[in-house]
Amino acid sequence: MALNNSINLHECLELVTRLSRQAGKLIKTRINQKKMIETKASSIDFVTETDQEVEKMLIEGIKHKYPTHKFIGEESFAAGIKENLTNEPTWVIDPVDGTTNFVHGYPNVCISIGLVIDCEAQLGVIFNPILDMFYRAIKGEGAFLNDEPIHVSNSKCLKDSLVSIEYGSVRTDEFRSIVNHNVTYLNKNAHGIRSGGSAAWNLAMVAKGACDLYVEMGLHAWDMAAGNIIVKEAGGVIIDPAGCEFELMNRRILAAASKELADEIYPNLKQYFPEHD
Ligand code: IPD
Ligand code: CA
Question: Please, what is the angle between helix 221-233 and helix 199-207, to 10°?
Answer without folding.
Answer: 0
